[in-house]
Specification:
The protein has 634 residues and is mostly helical. It contains 25 helices and 4 strands. Strand 1 and strand 2 (308-309) form a beta hairpin.
Length: 634
Protein backbone atom coordinates (compact mmCIF):
# COMPACT_ATOMS: atom_id res chain seq x y z
CA UNK A 1 0.00 0.00 0.00
CA UNK A 2 2.90 2.39 0.81
CA UNK A 3 4.74 1.42 -2.38
CA UNK A 4 1.74 2.16 -4.52
CA UNK A 5 1.44 5.56 -2.90
CA UNK A 6 5.14 6.31 -3.57
CA UNK A 7 4.82 5.34 -7.23
CA UNK A 8 1.80 7.57 -7.61
CA UNK A 9 3.64 10.41 -5.91
CA UNK A 10 6.69 10.03 -8.17
CA UNK A 11 4.64 9.95 -11.30
CA UNK A 12 2.61 12.92 -10.39
CA UNK A 13 5.67 15.02 -9.44
CA UNK A 14 7.84 14.55 -12.55
CA UNK A 15 9.23 17.81 -13.92
CA UNK A 16 7.12 19.37 -16.52
CA UNK A 17 9.90 19.81 -18.98
CA UNK A 18 10.95 16.19 -18.79
CA UNK A 19 7.45 15.02 -19.23
CA UNK A 20 7.00 17.29 -22.14
CA UNK A 21 10.10 15.93 -23.75
CA UNK A 22 9.05 12.40 -23.33
CA UNK A 23 5.64 13.19 -24.71
CA UNK A 24 7.15 14.89 -27.72
CA UNK A 25 9.50 11.98 -28.31
CA UNK A 26 12.59 14.21 -28.38
CA UNK A 27 15.79 13.28 -26.63
CA UNK A 28 16.42 14.58 -23.24
CA UNK A 29 19.17 17.01 -23.20
CA UNK A 30 20.03 18.80 -20.06
CA UNK A 31 22.95 20.29 -18.41
CA UNK A 32 24.63 18.66 -15.46
CA UNK A 33 23.43 21.26 -13.08
CA UNK A 34 19.93 20.84 -14.16
CA UNK A 35 20.22 17.05 -13.83
CA UNK A 36 21.57 17.36 -10.32
CA UNK A 37 18.80 19.62 -9.34
CA UNK A 38 16.36 17.20 -10.77
CA UNK A 39 17.81 14.29 -8.80
CA UNK A 40 17.74 16.27 -5.60
CA UNK A 41 14.12 17.16 -6.21
CA UNK A 42 13.32 13.46 -6.72
CA UNK A 43 15.13 12.42 -3.55
CA UNK A 44 13.18 14.82 -1.33
CA UNK A 45 9.74 13.36 -2.28
CA UNK A 46 11.07 9.85 -1.81
CA UNK A 47 12.12 10.71 1.67
CA UNK A 48 8.80 12.31 2.41
CA UNK A 49 7.01 9.33 0.99
CA UNK A 50 9.13 7.03 3.06
CA UNK A 51 8.31 8.98 6.20
CA UNK A 52 4.68 9.04 5.29
CA UNK A 53 4.69 5.33 4.75
CA UNK A 54 6.29 4.79 8.12
CA UNK A 55 3.68 6.96 9.72
CA UNK A 56 0.95 5.04 7.99
CA UNK A 57 2.43 1.81 9.22
CA UNK A 58 2.47 3.28 12.75
CA UNK A 59 -1.12 4.31 12.36
CA UNK A 60 -1.98 0.81 11.18
CA UNK A 61 -0.24 -0.69 14.16
CA UNK A 62 -2.01 1.76 16.52
CA UNK A 63 -5.28 0.98 14.85
CA UNK A 64 -4.68 -2.67 15.41
CA UNK A 65 -3.97 -2.03 19.05
CA UNK A 66 -7.12 0.11 19.33
CA UNK A 67 -9.18 -2.57 17.68
CA UNK A 68 -7.90 -5.03 20.23
CA UNK A 69 -8.81 -2.56 22.99
CA UNK A 70 -12.25 -2.03 21.47
CA UNK A 71 -12.73 -5.76 21.30
CA UNK A 72 -11.91 -5.88 24.97
CA UNK A 73 -14.38 -3.10 25.60
CA UNK A 74 -17.04 -4.92 23.60
CA UNK A 75 -16.45 -8.05 25.61
CA UNK A 76 -16.71 -6.01 28.80
CA UNK A 77 -19.93 -4.35 27.60
CA UNK A 78 -21.40 -7.73 26.86
CA UNK A 79 -20.64 -8.77 30.38
CA UNK A 80 -22.09 -5.52 31.75
CA UNK A 81 -25.22 -6.01 29.64
CA UNK A 82 -25.59 -9.50 30.97
CA UNK A 83 -25.14 -8.18 34.52
CA UNK A 84 -27.75 -5.46 33.86
CA UNK A 85 -30.22 -8.01 32.53
CA UNK A 86 -29.59 -10.22 35.52
CA UNK A 87 -29.91 -7.23 37.87
CA UNK A 88 -33.19 -6.15 36.14
CA UNK A 89 -34.62 -9.60 36.66
CA UNK A 90 -33.61 -9.50 40.29
CA UNK A 91 -35.21 -6.02 40.66
CA UNK A 92 -38.41 -7.32 39.07
CA UNK A 93 -38.44 -10.21 41.49
CA UNK A 94 -37.86 -7.81 44.36
CA UNK A 95 -40.75 -5.63 43.18
CA UNK A 96 -43.03 -8.63 42.97
CA UNK A 97 -42.03 -9.65 46.43
CA UNK A 98 -42.65 -6.10 47.70
CA UNK A 99 -46.09 -6.01 46.00
CA UNK A 100 -46.94 -9.33 47.57
CA UNK A 101 -45.73 -8.02 50.91
CA UNK A 102 -47.87 -4.88 50.52
CA UNK A 103 -50.93 -6.99 49.64
CA UNK A 104 -50.25 -9.16 52.66
CA UNK A 105 -49.88 -6.08 54.86
CA UNK A 106 -53.13 -4.61 53.46
CA UNK A 107 -55.01 -7.84 54.03
CA UNK A 108 -53.55 -8.08 57.50
CA UNK A 109 -54.52 -4.50 58.23
CA UNK A 110 -58.08 -5.07 56.97
CA UNK A 111 -58.29 -8.24 59.00
CA UNK A 112 -56.98 -6.40 62.03
CA UNK A 113 -59.38 -3.47 61.49
CA UNK A 114 -62.28 -5.87 61.04
CA UNK A 115 -61.23 -7.71 64.14
CA UNK A 116 -60.91 -4.48 66.12
CA UNK A 117 -64.29 -3.24 64.82
CA UNK A 118 -65.98 -6.54 65.54
CA UNK A 119 -64.31 -6.64 68.93
CA UNK A 120 -65.67 -3.15 69.66
CA UNK A 121 -69.16 -4.20 68.56
CA UNK A 122 -68.98 -7.38 70.58
CA UNK A 123 -67.90 -5.36 73.55
CA UNK A 124 -70.84 -2.98 73.04
CA UNK A 125 -73.19 -5.96 72.77
CA UNK A 126 -71.75 -7.44 75.96
CA UNK A 127 -72.11 -4.13 77.76
CA UNK A 128 -75.68 -3.74 76.44
CA UNK A 129 -76.62 -7.27 77.50
CA UNK A 130 -75.18 -6.73 80.96
CA UNK A 131 -76.91 -3.37 81.34
CA UNK A 132 -80.17 -4.74 79.95
CA UNK A 133 -80.02 -7.61 82.40
CA UNK A 134 -79.44 -5.19 85.25
CA UNK A 135 -82.27 -2.90 84.15
CA UNK A 136 -84.62 -5.85 83.67
CA UNK A 137 -83.89 -7.01 87.20
CA UNK A 138 -84.40 -3.49 88.47
CA UNK A 139 -87.60 -3.17 86.43
CA UNK A 140 -89.11 -6.27 87.95
CA UNK A 141 -87.97 -5.23 91.41
CA UNK A 142 -89.41 -1.71 91.20
CA UNK A 143 -92.32 -1.90 88.78
CA UNK A 144 -93.58 -5.48 88.74
CA UNK A 145 -96.32 -4.59 91.23
CA UNK A 146 -97.65 -1.88 88.93
CA UNK A 147 -98.63 -4.49 86.36
CA UNK A 148 -100.88 -6.14 88.91
CA UNK A 149 -102.26 -2.75 89.98
CA UNK A 150 -103.13 -1.98 86.39
CA UNK A 151 -104.80 -5.36 86.00
CA UNK A 152 -106.88 -4.74 89.15
CA UNK A 153 -107.87 -1.26 87.96
CA UNK A 154 -108.84 -2.62 84.55
CA UNK A 155 -111.04 -5.19 86.21
CA UNK A 156 -112.69 -2.78 88.68
CA UNK A 157 -113.76 -0.29 86.02
CA UNK A 158 -115.27 -2.96 83.81
CA UNK A 159 -119.05 -2.92 83.63
CA UNK A 160 -119.24 -6.65 84.26
CA UNK A 161 -117.41 -6.15 87.56
CA UNK A 162 -119.98 -3.56 88.60
CA UNK A 163 -122.80 -5.92 87.76
CA UNK A 164 -121.07 -8.73 89.64
CA UNK A 165 -120.73 -6.57 92.76
CA UNK A 166 -124.34 -5.37 92.66
CA UNK A 167 -125.54 -8.95 92.21
CA UNK A 168 -123.41 -10.09 95.17
CA UNK A 169 -121.39 -12.34 92.94
CA UNK A 170 -118.26 -10.70 94.36
CA UNK A 171 -117.83 -9.82 98.00
CA UNK A 172 -117.08 -6.13 98.48
CA UNK A 173 -114.71 -7.02 101.28
CA UNK A 174 -112.58 -8.91 98.77
CA UNK A 175 -112.58 -5.90 96.47
CA UNK A 176 -111.52 -3.68 99.37
CA UNK A 177 -108.80 -6.08 100.48
CA UNK A 178 -107.34 -6.32 96.99
CA UNK A 179 -107.34 -2.55 96.49
CA UNK A 180 -105.84 -1.89 99.94
CA UNK A 181 -103.11 -4.44 99.23
CA UNK A 182 -102.29 -2.60 96.01
CA UNK A 183 -102.00 0.69 97.91
CA UNK A 184 -99.69 -0.90 100.46
CA UNK A 185 -97.46 -2.32 97.73
CA UNK A 186 -97.49 0.83 95.57
CA UNK A 187 -97.99 3.84 97.87
CA UNK A 188 -96.36 6.26 95.36
CA UNK A 189 -98.32 5.11 92.30
CA UNK A 190 -101.42 7.25 91.70
CA UNK A 191 -103.47 4.37 90.30
CA UNK A 192 -103.35 2.46 93.59
CA UNK A 193 -105.31 5.06 95.67
CA UNK A 194 -107.54 5.77 92.64
CA UNK A 195 -108.42 2.06 92.54
CA UNK A 196 -109.07 2.13 96.28
CA UNK A 197 -111.50 5.04 95.74
CA UNK A 198 -113.45 3.00 93.18
CA UNK A 199 -113.56 0.04 95.57
CA UNK A 200 -114.79 2.30 98.40
CA UNK A 201 -117.65 3.49 96.18
CA UNK A 202 -118.70 -0.13 95.71
CA UNK A 203 -119.03 -0.35 99.53
CA UNK A 204 -120.67 3.13 99.75
CA UNK A 205 -117.81 4.31 101.96
CA UNK A 206 -117.79 7.98 100.93
CA UNK A 207 -115.27 9.12 103.54
CA UNK A 208 -112.69 6.52 102.61
CA UNK A 209 -113.33 7.22 98.91
CA UNK A 210 -112.62 10.93 99.44
CA UNK A 211 -109.39 10.21 101.32
CA UNK A 212 -108.27 7.83 98.58
CA UNK A 213 -109.16 10.40 95.91
CA UNK A 214 -107.21 13.10 97.73
CA UNK A 215 -104.18 10.84 97.95
CA UNK A 216 -104.39 10.05 94.24
CA UNK A 217 -104.71 13.76 93.39
CA UNK A 218 -101.60 14.53 95.39
CA UNK A 219 -99.62 11.97 93.40
CA UNK A 220 -100.89 12.98 89.91
CA UNK A 221 -103.88 15.30 89.72
CA UNK A 222 -104.42 15.21 85.94
CA UNK A 223 -104.39 11.42 85.60
CA UNK A 224 -106.44 10.87 88.76
CA UNK A 225 -109.12 13.36 87.64
CA UNK A 226 -109.34 11.77 84.21
CA UNK A 227 -109.46 8.25 85.63
CA UNK A 228 -112.27 9.10 88.05
CA UNK A 229 -114.22 10.95 85.33
CA UNK A 230 -113.98 8.04 82.90
CA UNK A 231 -114.81 5.56 85.66
CA UNK A 232 -117.91 7.44 86.79
CA UNK A 233 -118.96 7.76 83.16
CA UNK A 234 -118.72 4.00 82.72
CA UNK A 235 -120.64 3.52 85.98
CA UNK A 236 -123.40 5.81 84.64
CA UNK A 237 -122.90 8.80 86.98
CA UNK A 238 -122.69 11.66 84.43
CA UNK A 239 -122.78 14.41 87.08
CA UNK A 240 -119.63 13.18 88.78
CA UNK A 241 -118.07 12.41 85.42
CA UNK A 242 -118.63 16.03 84.34
CA UNK A 243 -117.27 17.42 87.62
CA UNK A 244 -114.12 15.33 87.43
CA UNK A 245 -113.54 16.11 83.75
CA UNK A 246 -113.79 19.80 84.58
CA UNK A 247 -111.05 19.37 87.17
CA UNK A 248 -109.02 17.40 84.66
CA UNK A 249 -109.26 20.13 82.03
CA UNK A 250 -108.34 22.79 84.58
CA UNK A 251 -105.16 20.89 85.45
CA UNK A 252 -103.89 20.81 81.85
CA UNK A 253 -101.44 23.19 80.20
CA UNK A 254 -103.01 24.37 76.91
CA UNK A 255 -99.55 24.69 75.36
CA UNK A 256 -98.51 21.13 76.28
CA UNK A 257 -101.39 18.83 75.43
CA UNK A 258 -100.49 15.18 75.05
CA UNK A 259 -101.94 12.79 72.54
CA UNK A 260 -104.17 11.40 75.31
CA UNK A 261 -106.17 14.59 75.12
CA UNK A 262 -107.32 13.67 71.59
CA UNK A 263 -108.96 10.49 72.84
CA UNK A 264 -110.57 12.36 75.74
CA UNK A 265 -111.78 15.05 73.34
CA UNK A 266 -113.42 12.40 71.17
CA UNK A 267 -115.15 10.94 74.23
CA UNK A 268 -116.39 14.34 75.42
CA UNK A 269 -117.54 15.45 71.98
CA UNK A 270 -119.42 12.17 71.47
CA UNK A 271 -121.32 12.89 74.72
CA UNK A 272 -120.07 9.66 76.23
CA UNK A 273 -119.28 11.59 79.42
CA UNK A 274 -122.61 13.39 79.41
CA UNK A 275 -123.87 16.87 78.54
CA UNK A 276 -122.33 18.46 81.61
CA UNK A 277 -118.86 17.29 80.62
CA UNK A 278 -119.44 18.68 77.13
CA UNK A 279 -120.45 22.05 78.54
CA UNK A 280 -117.46 22.17 80.89
CA UNK A 281 -115.09 21.27 78.08
CA UNK A 282 -116.47 24.00 75.82
CA UNK A 283 -116.10 26.61 78.52
CA UNK A 284 -112.56 25.54 79.36
CA UNK A 285 -111.43 25.45 75.74
CA UNK A 286 -113.00 28.85 75.12
CA UNK A 287 -110.96 30.18 78.03
CA UNK A 288 -107.81 28.63 76.60
CA UNK A 289 -108.36 30.22 73.20
CA UNK A 290 -106.36 33.49 73.13
CA UNK A 291 -108.04 36.62 71.85
CA UNK A 292 -106.75 37.34 68.38
CA UNK A 293 -106.98 40.98 67.44
CA UNK A 294 -105.38 43.19 64.88
CA UNK A 295 -104.34 42.30 61.39
CA UNK A 296 -102.03 44.00 58.97
CA UNK A 297 -103.23 44.78 55.48
CA UNK A 298 -99.91 43.45 54.21
CA UNK A 299 -101.17 40.06 53.05
CA UNK A 300 -97.70 38.77 52.35
CA UNK A 301 -96.86 38.56 56.06
CA UNK A 302 -98.31 35.92 58.34
CA UNK A 303 -97.85 35.38 62.03
CA UNK A 304 -97.40 32.26 64.06
CA UNK A 305 -98.96 31.62 67.42
CA UNK A 306 -98.34 28.78 69.82
CA UNK A 307 -96.09 27.00 67.34
CA UNK A 308 -98.95 26.62 64.85
CA UNK A 309 -100.15 28.40 61.79
CA UNK A 310 -102.39 31.29 62.78
CA UNK A 311 -106.10 31.13 62.12
CA UNK A 312 -106.04 34.33 60.09
CA UNK A 313 -103.37 33.05 57.75
CA UNK A 314 -105.43 29.87 57.29
CA UNK A 315 -108.50 31.89 56.40
CA UNK A 316 -106.47 34.17 54.17
CA UNK A 317 -105.16 31.18 52.23
CA UNK A 318 -108.78 30.29 51.36
CA UNK A 319 -109.47 33.62 49.62
CA UNK A 320 -110.19 33.77 45.93
CA UNK A 321 -107.51 35.06 43.63
CA UNK A 322 -107.92 37.19 40.53
CA UNK A 323 -106.20 35.60 37.58
CA UNK A 324 -104.24 37.62 35.08
CA UNK A 325 -106.83 36.86 32.37
CA UNK A 326 -109.73 38.40 34.28
CA UNK A 327 -110.64 42.09 34.26
CA UNK A 328 -107.85 42.91 31.82
CA UNK A 329 -109.53 46.09 30.51
CA UNK A 330 -110.39 47.28 34.01
CA UNK A 331 -106.84 46.53 35.10
CA UNK A 332 -105.49 48.55 32.15
CA UNK A 333 -107.73 51.58 32.65
CA UNK A 334 -107.32 51.71 36.44
CA UNK A 335 -103.57 52.12 36.32
CA UNK A 336 -101.95 52.40 39.76
CA UNK A 337 -105.28 51.90 41.55
CA UNK A 338 -105.51 48.25 40.56
CA UNK A 339 -103.15 46.76 43.15
CA UNK A 340 -105.10 48.21 46.11
CA UNK A 341 -108.41 47.21 44.48
CA UNK A 342 -107.20 43.65 43.98
CA UNK A 343 -106.12 43.32 47.64
CA UNK A 344 -109.45 44.66 48.88
CA UNK A 345 -111.46 42.42 46.55
CA UNK A 346 -109.58 39.30 47.65
CA UNK A 347 -110.04 40.19 51.34
CA UNK A 348 -113.77 40.49 50.72
CA UNK A 349 -113.90 36.87 49.52
CA UNK A 350 -112.43 35.42 52.73
CA UNK A 351 -115.79 35.13 54.52
CA UNK A 352 -117.54 33.42 51.62
CA UNK A 353 -114.69 31.01 50.91
CA UNK A 354 -114.40 30.17 54.61
CA UNK A 355 -118.12 29.47 54.77
CA UNK A 356 -117.92 27.25 51.68
CA UNK A 357 -115.00 25.33 53.18
CA UNK A 358 -116.78 24.83 56.51
CA UNK A 359 -119.90 23.60 54.73
CA UNK A 360 -117.80 21.03 52.89
CA UNK A 361 -116.11 19.93 56.10
CA UNK A 362 -119.33 19.85 58.14
CA UNK A 363 -122.14 18.93 55.76
CA UNK A 364 -124.53 18.37 58.69
CA UNK A 365 -124.15 21.95 59.85
CA UNK A 366 -122.16 23.56 62.62
CA UNK A 367 -123.92 21.64 65.38
CA UNK A 368 -124.51 18.43 63.48
CA UNK A 369 -126.82 15.67 64.60
CA UNK A 370 -126.92 15.20 68.36
CA UNK A 371 -126.09 11.61 69.23
CA UNK A 372 -124.43 9.72 72.07
CA UNK A 373 -121.45 7.53 71.35
CA UNK A 374 -121.25 3.84 72.05
CA UNK A 375 -118.66 4.24 74.77
CA UNK A 376 -115.71 3.08 72.71
CA UNK A 377 -113.91 6.39 73.22
CA UNK A 378 -114.26 6.10 77.00
CA UNK A 379 -113.04 2.54 76.87
CA UNK A 380 -110.08 3.50 74.68
CA UNK A 381 -109.22 6.44 76.94
CA UNK A 382 -109.34 4.25 80.04
CA UNK A 383 -107.17 1.56 78.50
CA UNK A 384 -104.69 4.17 77.33
CA UNK A 385 -104.64 5.89 80.73
CA UNK A 386 -104.22 2.67 82.74
CA UNK A 387 -101.48 1.33 80.48
CA UNK A 388 -99.62 4.62 80.34
CA UNK A 389 -96.17 4.36 81.91
CA UNK A 390 -95.06 6.69 84.64
CA UNK A 391 -92.07 8.97 84.01
CA UNK A 392 -89.66 6.71 85.90
CA UNK A 393 -91.02 3.67 84.07
CA UNK A 394 -90.90 5.42 80.72
CA UNK A 395 -87.32 6.53 81.30
CA UNK A 396 -86.20 3.00 82.19
CA UNK A 397 -88.19 1.48 79.33
CA UNK A 398 -86.57 3.95 76.98
CA UNK A 399 -83.11 2.85 78.13
CA UNK A 400 -84.07 -0.82 77.78
CA UNK A 401 -85.38 -0.31 74.23
CA UNK A 402 -82.21 1.49 73.24
CA UNK A 403 -80.11 -1.38 74.63
CA UNK A 404 -82.29 -3.88 72.75
CA UNK A 405 -81.63 -1.98 69.52
CA UNK A 406 -77.87 -2.14 70.18
CA UNK A 407 -78.08 -5.91 70.63
CA UNK A 408 -80.29 -6.34 67.53
CA UNK A 409 -77.78 -4.43 65.37
CA UNK A 410 -74.76 -6.31 66.69
CA UNK A 411 -73.20 -3.41 68.56
CA UNK A 412 -73.49 -0.85 65.70
CA UNK A 413 -74.33 2.22 67.76
CA UNK A 414 -75.18 4.49 64.82
CA UNK A 415 -77.56 1.96 63.26
CA UNK A 416 -79.09 1.33 66.67
CA UNK A 417 -79.68 5.05 67.23
CA UNK A 418 -81.33 5.39 63.81
CA UNK A 419 -83.56 2.39 64.43
CA UNK A 420 -84.47 3.71 67.85
CA UNK A 421 -85.42 7.12 66.46
CA UNK A 422 -87.60 5.49 63.82
CA UNK A 423 -89.34 3.37 66.44
CA UNK A 424 -90.36 6.41 68.50
CA UNK A 425 -94.07 7.15 68.24
CA UNK A 426 -95.43 10.68 67.78
CA UNK A 427 -97.30 10.32 71.06
CA UNK A 428 -94.24 11.65 72.84
CA UNK A 429 -94.59 15.04 71.13
CA UNK A 430 -96.96 17.44 72.94
CA UNK A 431 -99.15 19.79 70.95
CA UNK A 432 -100.61 23.18 71.78
CA UNK A 433 -104.33 23.84 71.81
CA UNK A 434 -104.18 26.32 68.94
CA UNK A 435 -102.25 23.87 66.81
CA UNK A 436 -104.75 21.14 67.66
CA UNK A 437 -107.75 23.31 66.80
CA UNK A 438 -106.10 24.52 63.61
CA UNK A 439 -105.31 21.00 62.44
CA UNK A 440 -108.72 19.67 63.46
CA UNK A 441 -110.43 22.18 61.13
CA UNK A 442 -107.97 22.86 58.32
CA UNK A 443 -105.83 19.70 58.32
CA UNK A 444 -108.18 16.87 59.36
CA UNK A 445 -105.75 14.22 58.15
CA UNK A 446 -103.07 15.34 60.60
CA UNK A 447 -104.99 14.51 63.81
CA UNK A 448 -107.00 11.43 64.73
CA UNK A 449 -110.28 13.07 65.68
CA UNK A 450 -113.85 12.13 64.88
CA UNK A 451 -116.40 14.47 63.37
CA UNK A 452 -117.98 15.41 66.74
CA UNK A 453 -114.57 16.36 68.11
CA UNK A 454 -113.90 18.49 65.03
CA UNK A 455 -117.19 20.30 65.58
CA UNK A 456 -116.16 20.84 69.18
CA UNK A 457 -112.86 22.30 67.96
CA UNK A 458 -114.82 24.57 65.63
CA UNK A 459 -117.00 25.59 68.56
CA UNK A 460 -113.89 26.51 70.55
CA UNK A 461 -112.29 28.47 67.75
CA UNK A 462 -115.46 30.07 66.42
CA UNK A 463 -115.21 33.41 68.29
CA UNK A 464 -111.72 33.98 66.93
CA UNK A 465 -112.82 32.83 63.47
CA UNK A 466 -115.79 35.19 63.44
CA UNK A 467 -113.64 38.04 64.74
CA UNK A 468 -111.06 37.39 62.03
CA UNK A 469 -113.77 37.34 59.34
CA UNK A 470 -115.13 40.65 60.59
CA UNK A 471 -111.65 42.11 60.57
CA UNK A 472 -111.08 40.97 56.98
CA UNK A 473 -114.36 42.54 55.89
CA UNK A 474 -113.51 45.75 57.75
CA UNK A 475 -110.16 45.94 55.98
CA UNK A 476 -111.84 45.19 52.67
CA UNK A 477 -114.43 47.91 53.22
CA UNK A 478 -111.66 50.28 54.23
CA UNK A 479 -109.89 49.60 50.94
CA UNK A 480 -113.07 50.10 48.89
CA UNK A 481 -113.07 53.63 47.37
CA UNK A 482 -116.29 55.52 46.64
CA UNK A 483 -115.16 56.23 43.09
CA UNK A 484 -112.48 55.04 40.71
CA UNK A 485 -110.99 56.87 37.76
CA UNK A 486 -110.79 55.19 34.37
CA UNK A 487 -108.29 56.57 31.87
CA UNK A 488 -108.53 55.78 28.17
CA UNK A 489 -106.55 57.49 25.40
CA UNK A 490 -105.78 60.54 27.52
CA UNK A 491 -109.41 60.89 28.61
CA UNK A 492 -110.62 60.05 32.11
CA UNK A 493 -113.92 59.56 33.87
CA UNK A 494 -115.04 58.84 37.43
CA UNK A 495 -117.16 55.76 38.12
CA UNK A 496 -118.97 54.99 41.38
CA UNK A 497 -118.14 51.67 43.07
CA UNK A 498 -121.57 51.25 44.67
CA UNK A 499 -123.57 48.70 42.63
CA UNK A 500 -126.77 50.50 43.60
CA UNK A 501 -125.64 53.55 41.61
CA UNK A 502 -126.28 52.65 38.01
CA UNK A 503 -123.63 53.73 35.54
CA UNK A 504 -124.93 54.52 32.06
CA UNK A 505 -122.19 53.61 29.61
CA UNK A 506 -123.80 55.47 26.68
CA UNK A 507 -123.01 59.06 27.74
CA UNK A 508 -119.50 58.13 28.81
CA UNK A 509 -118.79 56.36 25.53
CA UNK A 510 -120.24 59.27 23.56
CA UNK A 511 -118.15 61.73 25.56
CA UNK A 512 -115.02 59.67 24.93
CA UNK A 513 -115.77 59.45 21.20
CA UNK A 514 -116.38 63.20 21.04
CA UNK A 515 -113.12 63.87 22.85
CA UNK A 516 -111.13 61.71 20.45
CA UNK A 517 -112.88 63.27 17.42
CA UNK A 518 -112.00 66.74 18.65
CA UNK A 519 -108.40 65.69 19.21
CA UNK A 520 -108.33 64.17 15.72
CA UNK A 521 -109.79 67.34 14.19
CA UNK A 522 -107.19 69.47 15.90
CA UNK A 523 -104.41 67.19 14.72
CA UNK A 524 -105.83 67.17 11.17
CA UNK A 525 -106.02 70.95 11.08
CA UNK A 526 -102.46 71.13 12.26
CA UNK A 527 -101.35 69.37 9.08
CA UNK A 528 -100.27 72.25 6.67
CA UNK A 529 -97.64 72.84 4.05
CA UNK A 530 -94.25 73.11 5.64
CA UNK A 531 -92.82 75.98 3.61
CA UNK A 532 -89.38 76.01 5.24
CA UNK A 533 -88.88 72.46 4.05
CA UNK A 534 -90.14 73.38 0.56
CA UNK A 535 -87.74 76.31 0.31
CA UNK A 536 -84.86 74.28 1.70
CA UNK A 537 -85.44 71.45 -0.80
CA UNK A 538 -85.73 73.97 -3.68
CA UNK A 539 -82.51 75.78 -2.74
CA UNK A 540 -80.53 72.56 -2.30
CA UNK A 541 -81.83 71.20 -5.61
CA UNK A 542 -81.00 74.41 -7.57
CA UNK A 543 -77.55 74.82 -6.04
CA UNK A 544 -76.72 71.16 -6.70
CA UNK A 545 -77.96 71.29 -10.30
CA UNK A 546 -76.33 74.63 -11.18
CA UNK A 547 -73.12 74.82 -9.18
CA UNK A 548 -72.09 71.18 -8.75
CA UNK A 549 -73.36 69.00 -11.60
CA UNK A 550 -71.68 70.96 -14.50
CA UNK A 551 -68.26 70.70 -12.86
CA UNK A 552 -68.08 66.99 -12.06
CA UNK A 553 -67.80 63.93 -14.27
CA UNK A 554 -68.41 60.24 -14.11
CA UNK A 555 -70.17 58.63 -11.19
CA UNK A 556 -70.12 61.84 -9.09
CA UNK A 557 -72.29 63.62 -11.65
CA UNK A 558 -74.92 60.91 -11.46
CA UNK A 559 -74.89 61.02 -7.66
CA UNK A 560 -75.43 64.79 -7.57
CA UNK A 561 -78.10 64.55 -10.28
CA UNK A 562 -79.90 61.99 -8.14
CA UNK A 563 -79.59 64.31 -5.12
CA UNK A 564 -81.04 67.23 -7.08
CA UNK A 565 -83.88 65.06 -8.34
CA UNK A 566 -84.62 63.89 -4.79
CA UNK A 567 -84.77 67.51 -3.53
CA UNK A 568 -87.25 68.51 -6.24
CA UNK A 569 -89.31 65.38 -5.53
CA UNK A 570 -89.34 66.21 -1.80
CA UNK A 571 -90.48 69.75 -2.61
CA UNK A 572 -93.35 68.47 -4.75
CA UNK A 573 -94.34 65.97 -2.00
CA UNK A 574 -94.40 68.71 0.63
CA UNK A 575 -96.67 70.84 -1.57
CA UNK A 576 -99.16 68.18 -2.71
CA UNK A 577 -99.16 65.65 0.27
CA UNK A 578 -101.25 67.73 2.70
CA UNK A 579 -104.60 66.02 1.86
CA UNK A 580 -103.01 62.56 2.17
CA UNK A 581 -101.49 63.36 5.56
CA UNK A 582 -104.77 64.76 6.81
CA UNK A 583 -106.54 61.60 5.72
CA UNK A 584 -103.93 59.50 7.51
CA UNK A 585 -104.48 61.47 10.75
CA UNK A 586 -108.25 61.03 10.46
CA UNK A 587 -107.87 57.28 9.87
CA UNK A 588 -105.65 56.94 12.93
CA UNK A 589 -108.16 58.94 14.96
CA UNK A 590 -111.01 56.67 13.85
CA UNK A 591 -109.06 53.54 14.81
CA UNK A 592 -108.12 55.06 18.16
CA UNK A 593 -111.76 56.02 18.78
CA UNK A 594 -113.02 52.53 18.01
CA UNK A 595 -110.38 50.86 20.22
CA UNK A 596 -110.93 53.31 23.07
CA UNK A 597 -114.70 52.95 22.94
CA UNK A 598 -114.39 49.16 22.99
CA UNK A 599 -111.92 49.29 25.90
CA UNK A 600 -114.10 51.67 27.90
CA UNK A 601 -117.24 49.62 27.26
CA UNK A 602 -115.52 46.45 28.48
CA UNK A 603 -113.95 48.24 31.44
CA UNK A 604 -117.36 49.55 32.54
CA UNK A 605 -118.89 46.07 32.37
CA UNK A 606 -115.94 44.55 34.21
CA UNK A 607 -116.10 47.32 36.80
CA UNK A 608 -119.77 46.59 37.44
CA UNK A 609 -119.11 42.85 37.86
CA UNK A 610 -115.98 43.49 39.93
CA UNK A 611 -117.65 45.69 42.52
CA UNK A 612 -120.79 43.54 42.62
CA UNK A 613 -118.59 40.57 43.53
CA UNK A 614 -116.80 42.76 46.07
CA UNK A 615 -120.01 43.79 47.86
CA UNK A 616 -121.41 40.27 47.59
CA UNK A 617 -118.22 38.89 49.18
CA UNK A 618 -118.52 41.30 52.10
CA UNK A 619 -122.17 40.32 52.46
CA UNK A 620 -121.12 36.68 52.96
CA UNK A 621 -120.04 37.66 56.46
CA UNK A 622 -123.69 37.70 57.53
CA UNK A 623 -124.19 34.19 56.13
CA UNK A 624 -121.08 32.99 57.93
CA UNK A 625 -122.28 34.42 61.25
CA UNK A 626 -125.72 32.93 60.76
CA UNK A 627 -124.26 29.51 59.93
CA UNK A 628 -122.33 29.51 63.20
CA UNK A 629 -125.05 31.31 65.16
CA UNK A 630 -125.69 28.27 67.33
CA UNK A 631 -122.25 28.72 68.86
CA UNK A 632 -123.22 32.19 70.08
CA UNK A 633 -126.34 30.93 71.77
CA UNK A 634 -124.45 28.54 74.05
Amino acid sequence: MAEIAQERFKTSHLPTACSDSIDNGSPVTARGDDLGDIMEDRLEPDSALHQLGERLEGVERGQGRHEETLDGFRDGLRGVRADVVRLSGEVTNVRQEIAGLESTVTDTRQTLDTFIEQYGRDREVSKAQAELSRLTTEWHANFAQRKQTRALARGLVHTLTTQAVYRNMVNTATVRACSEERLLLEPTYWLAPATLAVAANFRDEAEQAERAQSHALILDAAKANLFLSLTYSRLGDEAKAGAWIDLYLQSLDPDELGQDFLVVLDAIASRELGEEALGYARQTMAGWNPDSSGYSLDTHKTSNAHDGTSLKSRMLSLRRRISEKRHTDLRETCGNQWEALQVGWELATVSGETLAYLRRMFPDGAEGIASVGTGRHVESALERLIDQLEPDEADMREKMRRLERVIEHGGDLKAADRAHEVSLTPDATPVSLMTLLDQAIFEPDEVRLGQPARRMALHAIWPALESAAQRFVALSRQGLPHHITLRVAGWSCTVATDPRIAVEPGPLIEELATHIEQETRVQSEAVVRRWPRVILALVIGILTGVLVVPFVDGMSRWIYLLLAFGMFTWMIWEIWSVPLRKKHVRDQGNRLRNDAVTTLSRALRQSEDFFEDWHEGMGKLTSLIQWGGQFQQK
